[in-house]
Amino acid sequence: MRKNKIIGEKRMTNAKSKTATLVALFLMFAIAISLVAIPIPTANAQTRRVTIYPYINAIPNPVRVGDEVLLHFGITIYTAWPQSGWRRLTITVTKPDNTTQSLGPFDTDTTGGTGYVYVPTMEGTYYFQVHFPEQVLEVATLGIPANSTLLAASSEKLTLTVQKEPLKYYPGVPLPTEYWSRPIDAQNREWASISGNWLHPKGYFIDMNAPYNDQAPNAPHILWAKPLVGGAFSPLGGGLAGGLLPGPQGFECGDAYEGLWTPPVIIGGALFFNRYKADGSTRVEQDVVAVDLRTGEELWVRNWNNTRLSHGQTFYWDLFNYHAVFAYLWTVVGTTWTAYEPYTGRWVATFTGVPVASGTPANIYGKNGEIIRHTVSLTAGWMTKWNSTHVVTQTRRAAIPGANQAHGSWFREYMGTTFNASLGIMWNVTIPRGLPGSVVAQLSDRLIGTNFASGTMAPDTLVLWAISTAPGREGQLLFNKTWPRPSPDIRMRLETASVEDGVFTVVSLETAQHYAFDINTGAPIWTGEKQDFKDAWSFSSGYFYDFIYKGKLFSGGCGGTVNVYNVTTGKRLWTYDFVDHYGEFTFDNNWFVYYAFVADEKLYINYAEHSPNDPKERGAYMVALDVETGKEIWTLNYYGTVWGGKMVIGDNIIAMLNSYQQHIYAIGKGPSATTVSIQNDVTTHGNKVLVKGTVIDISAGTKQHEQAARFPSGVPAVSDASMGAWMEYVYMQKPRPTDVTGVEVVISVVDPNGNSYEVGRTTSDASGGFKLMFTPEVPGEYTVIAAFAGSESYWPSYAHTYLGVEDAPQPTPAPTPTPAPMTDTYILGSTAGIIIAIVVVGLLLVLLLRKRP
User: Fold this and answer.
1) How confident is the model over 268-302, as pLDDT tens digits?
2) Model confidence over 658-675: pLDDT tens digits?
3) Sign of CA dihedral 842, 843, 845, 849
4) Under 8 Å between Cβ of 293 and 650
5) Are 303 and 287 in contact (CB under 8 A)?
6) How far apart (Å, rounded) are the C-alpha atoms in residues 598 and 652?
7) In which band, very low, low, confident or very high, does the pLDDT at 819 lie, cut at 50, 70 and 90?
8) Model confidence at 25: pLDDT above 80
9) Residue 349 host element (H or E)
10) Model pTM greater than 0.85?
11) Under DSSP, is residue 689 helix (H, G, I), strand (E, B) or coil?
12) What are phi and psi of 373, to 5 degrees?
C-alpha cells in the first residue's frame, strides 16, 4: 500500500520547496527503518506481551514561528503485509504558554511510522509526546508471533524550539543566463519552468497551452536544420526538382494523406519522430528516430516492428521505496499499445485490449502523467474509466493476492511483459439512459455530448449534455439542455471548451458564428459576431481548431484572420491578418491560419494546406504573436504540414518540418563566441589603441557542411531585428540581406591600478567583425575585455586580451649657449658705433642738399 502521508493544518508561509524537503527526509527515514532488522527474541510460536518504544522527531528543529515542521513518529517495530501499520496513535502538544493540544488519532504505514505537518504559532519551547495504545499484532514480524499484544507506551518528550529569526533554506538556483543543455541538475527545481516536454499532438479539444517553456523563442534564430530522410540528397528531401520537367516542380513533400514526421514528441531535451510515410499498415519499413533537440545529433534509430510512434508519456511513480519520473514512447496498432524507453528505444511492455475511448481527445493525462480513457454506452447506460497505471498495479494484485502494490521496485518484475489492458478499468458506473447523439469532448472532469455532428445538417432542436467523471461524482448528469437551432439548414459543431473558464462553444458552419454556454449548467451565455465565410471551411474540415487560453477564445482558420474574444462576454479583443504579401495564394489575400501552440504568452501560428499545390505558393511564413495584444513579434519563411507533424516545443526550442525543403528546423536561443585582439599590444602612453574582434554564431547548424563551406570563418551573429532574413539567407538559400545589423559589443578594461571600467561600445557588422579605438589613461598593464551581453537569439559570450602601455619618453632639453669673448664685445660695439655715425652723416647731407636754392 502507499505510505500514509497525513497532512494537517497548513500555513504556506514557506514555500513548497521546504515541504518537499521535509517529506523527502521523512521518506528517507521511513525507508531506513524498514531496512533495519531489530533483534527481538523469537517466541516459539507463542503469543507474547511486548514492550515497545515509541519515538517522535521534528524536522527542522529549531523552526520559525508560522513555518511548517514535520513530525515523524511511530514505534521501532514494523508490520508485515497485509497488516498495513499501527493504529490510533496520538500526540500531546504542550505549548510555550503551558496550554495543551491533542493531535490524532493517526495510523502508521508498514514501517511503523508516519508523519504530520504542524505549524507552531508562538515563540518559545514546545513539547511533543506520542502515545501508542495497546493493540494486537496481526501478522508475525521480527520474531514476534501473530496475536501478540503490544503494550501501551509513550515516548519521551520532544523539545521543539520556535524562534522569530528565519531559518536558512536552500537558496535556489536562478534561471540560466548562459547556454545550457540536458541533463539538468535535479537541485535546480526552478528550472522546471523552462524544461517542458511535448507528449501528444495539440488539436480538437486539447489545450493549446505548452507550459514550462517560459523562455520560448522571441526571435527566429535557427539552431540546426537537417533533411528528414537521407543525407545531402534524398527523393524525399523536398525542394525544387529541376531538370527536364515542364515547370518548376518540387519533389514530394509527404503531406496530403502521407503523414511524414507525425507526430513528433519531445521528452527530456530529445526529439522523437517517425521518419517515413504513414503506410497505414505494418508492411513497410517504419523507423523512429531520436535526435538531440539542441544539436540535431542523431541519438538512435529503431524499427519497432514497422509500427509508428503515436504519443509520449512522462509518469511520476510515487511508490513505497521509489519516487521518480519514468518516460515512455508508445505505438498504437488497433487496441494494442506498446511502450518503449526513450533513452535507448528498447521495448518495455505491451498492453493488449486497450478500451476504445468515447470523445475527443481519446487520451487525457492525469496529474501524475497517467493516461486516462473513458468509454460510454449511451444505450446500455454505463461508463468506465481506464487508467494506464492501473493496468500494472492490478496485474500484480491478480498475480499476488493481497500484495503490497506500492512496494518499491516491483515494476521491474514486469518489464518485458504483455499486459491485459482491461485490468486498467478503475470503475464502471451507471449513467442515465437515452441521452441523444454521442460523446464529443473528453475533458479533465467531464464528458460533453450532443445530438448533432459537424458533417450533417443539425436537427431543429439541439441537445447539449454533460456527465461528470470527477471523483465522488462519477456518472452524475451535470446538465441535459435543449436549444432551438439558431438558423435554418445549418451544420453545428461543438468547437472548444474550458473547465477552468467555465465555458464551451458551439459554432455554426454556414454563418461562421459562435455560441457560448456555461460548462456547468449548459445555459447560453452569448452569441458571437460572424467571421469570414471561409472560416466555415475550417470548422467543417477537422484540421483547424478554436481554443481557449486564459479567458480568451482564439478562432479563425481559412479566413486568414486570428480573431480573439473575451470568452465570458464574446467581446472582440484583437485581430491579426495573416497577410500574403506577394499575392501567391489562390484562395485569399491572407494565408490559412493554423494554430501551433501558446508558450510564454506568445501565440505561434503558421500556414499549411491539406492538399498543397505544386509548385508551392511562395512566401508563406510562421509568426509569433503577443497573446495580449496581437502584436507581431517575429516571422520566418515556413510552409507547414497538415498530414505531417505540426510544430512542437520543448525546452523552449521549437522543432518543425518545413515543406519548402523537407528539412527539420530547430528554433531557439543559440550559443555565441566572441574574439578580441589588439595588433600592437604594446604602445606608448598617449597613443590610441585599436581593439578588434568578432562575434560568431556557433550553434550546431553553423557547423553543417553547407554552412561551414559558405562561412569558413563562422556565421556572423546579427541583431534580433535582422534575424528572420538572415536565417533565411544562411539556411534557406535566400539572397543575402543588405540591411543586416550586428550585435552590440561592450569594451571594458582592468587598468594597472585594478580599476574596471567601460571604454566604449560598438556594433559588429554583417561579417561579424567589430572595432573600437580608445586611449589608455595611465601607463602599465591592461586587461581588455570584449563582451556581448546576449540577445533574444544568442546566449552571451566574451573574450579578453592584454595590453602594455609604456611611459612616453621625456623630451631632450635645449643646450645652454656659450658666452662670447670680451674682444668680440669690443669689436661688435665699435662696429655698431661706426655704422651709426655713417647713418647720421648721411642724414645731415640729405638735409643740406634740400636747403640749396
Assistant:
1) 999 999 988 877 666 788 899 999 999 999 999 99
2) 999 889 999 999 999 999
3) positive
4) yes
5) yes
6) 12
7) low
8) no
9) strand 347-352
10) yes
11) strand
12) -135, 145
Contact call for residues 440 and 504 (beta carbons, < 8 A): no
- Cβ-count burial of 321 within 10 angstroms (0-12 exposed, 13-18 middle, 19+ buried)? middle
By DSSP bridging, strand 158-163 and strand 63-64 are parallel
Beta-bridged to residue 676, according to DSSP, are 693
3-class SS of residue 541 = helix
Measured distance between the N- and C-terminal CA atoms of the chain, rounded to whole angstroms: 154
> pLDDT value at position 412?
62
User: Which DSSP state fits 74?
Assistant: E
- The CA distance from 292 to 598, in Å, is 23
What's the rounded Cα separation, in Å, for the pair 546 and 206? 10
Dihedral-angle region of residue 506 (phi above 0 means left; psi in -120 to 50 means alpha; beta otherwise): beta
Pairing of strands 417-420, 347-352: parallel
Instruction: Please check the confidence at residue 14 and state whether its pLDDT lies above 70.
Output: no
Q: Helix or strand or coil: residue 831? A: helix
Please indicate whether the domains covering 193-667 and 672-806 agree at the CATH topology level.
Answer: no
Backbone angles phi, psi at 408, to 5 degrees: -55, -70
Residues in Cβ contact with 239 at an 8 Å cutoff, skipping those fewer than 6 apart: 250, 251, 660, 661, 662
Pick from 65, 94, 89, 90: nearest CA to 77: 89
Domain ranges of the chain: 5-163, 193-667, 672-806
What pairs with residue 555 in β-bridges?
563
Tens of pLDDT, residues 544-558? 889 999 999 999 999
Which has more confidence, 390 or 233?
Answer: 390
pLDDT at 94 over 50: yes
- Where does residue 82 fall: left (phi above 0), alpha (psi -120 to 50 degrees), or beta otherwise? alpha
- List strand residue ranges (DSSP E) for 499-586, in order: 503-508, 513-518, 524-530, 547-549, 552-555, 561-566, 572-577
Cα dihedral across residues 75, 81, 87, 93: positive or negative: positive
Q: Bridge-partner residues for 780, per DSSP?
A: 805
Compute CA distances 339 → 43, 184, 329, 807, whole Å: 49, 25, 6, 74
pLDDT tops 90 at residue 792: yes
CATH class of segment(s) 5-163 = mainly beta
> Which CATH number is associated with domain 672-806?
2.60.40.1930
589-643, pLDDT tens digit by residue? 999 999 999 999 999 999 998 888 888 999 999 999 999 999 999 999 999 998 8
Residue (of 651, 792, 666) closest to 218 by Cα position: 792
* CB-CB neighbours of 138 under 10 Å: 14
Cα separation, 538 vs 449, in Å, equals: 21
**Coil, strand or helix at 105:** strand
DSSP state of 206: S
> In whole angstroms, what is the distance from residue 118 CA to residue 845 CA?
132
CA 400, CA 649: separation in Å to the nearest integer? 42
Average pLDDT over residues 512-521: 96
Higher pLDDT among residues 834 and 476, named by residue: 476
CA–CA separation, 505 vs 731, rounded Å? 42
CATH entry 3.40.50.150 includes domain 193-667 = no
CA 471 to chain centre: 30
Q: How many CA atoms lie within 13 A of 203 on its CB side?
A: 19
Torsion angle defined by CA atoms of residues 630, 636, 642 and 648, in that order, rounded to the nearest 10 degrees: -80
